[in-house]
Amino acid sequence: MLYTATLAADEPSRIGFIVSKSVGNAVVRNLVKRRLREAGALSLQKYGSGLAIVVRALPAAADASWDQLLSDYDAALQTTMKRLGSRPPQAASPASDKTTQEGTARA
């Protein structure tokens, strides 16, 4: 499940994740979170600012492959973007794809 809301156009986008114990044990939950975090980082390159995104991982996410999880994330994001009024993508600044918000280098 993915929920999206708009922020001010000049505010950086934010992504939050909800991965409950129903998804699996701690190892599985952390794997799902890492994969969703990377999917979110890829989407921030397309939609740079002005979005608040909340992703709730369902138990099926534990068994999903990376490609399946990424395609489901992208499809859900596209659906919510259509509901928001087809806001045009605003690319992220070049510096944001190399570091996280805290300033640490991306792996």
Q: How is the secondary structure organized here?
A:
Elements: E1 2-6, E2 14-19, H1 26-46, E3 51-57, H2 66-83
Parallel strand pairs: 2-3
Antiparallel strand pairs: 1-3
What does this structure look like?
36% of the residues lie in helices and 17% in strands. Mean pLDDT is 82; it is low at 99-105. The protein starts with a strand and ends in a 24-residue tail after the last helix. Helix 1 (26-46) crosses helix 2. The chain is an alpha+beta fold. The radius of gyration is 14 Å and the shape is elongated. It has helices at residues 26-46, 66-83, and strands spanning 2-6, 14-19, 51-57. Helix 1 links the parallel strand 2 and strand 3. Strands 1-3-2 form a 3-stranded mixed beta sheet, with helices on one face. The chain contains 2 helices and 3 strands; from the N terminus they run ββαβα. It has one domain (2-83): 2-Layer Sandwich (Ribosomal Protein S5, domain 2), CATH 3.30.230.
Please describe the structure with a list of short key phrases separated by commas or semicolons:
about 110 residues; alpha+beta; Ribosomal Protein S5, domain 2; three-stranded mixed beta sheet; 3 strands; about 35% helix; disordered C terminus
Rounded to an integer, what's the Rg over CA atoms? 14 Å
Any idea of the CATH class? Alpha Beta
Q: Mean pLDDT across all residues, rounded?
A: 82
SSE run: EEHEH
CATH architecture: 2-Layer Sandwich
Briefly note the CATH topology name: Ribosomal Protein S5, domain 2
Residues in helix, %: 25-40%
Helix and strand content put the structural class at alpha+beta
Tell how many strands the DSSP assignment holds.
3
> Count of helical segments?
2
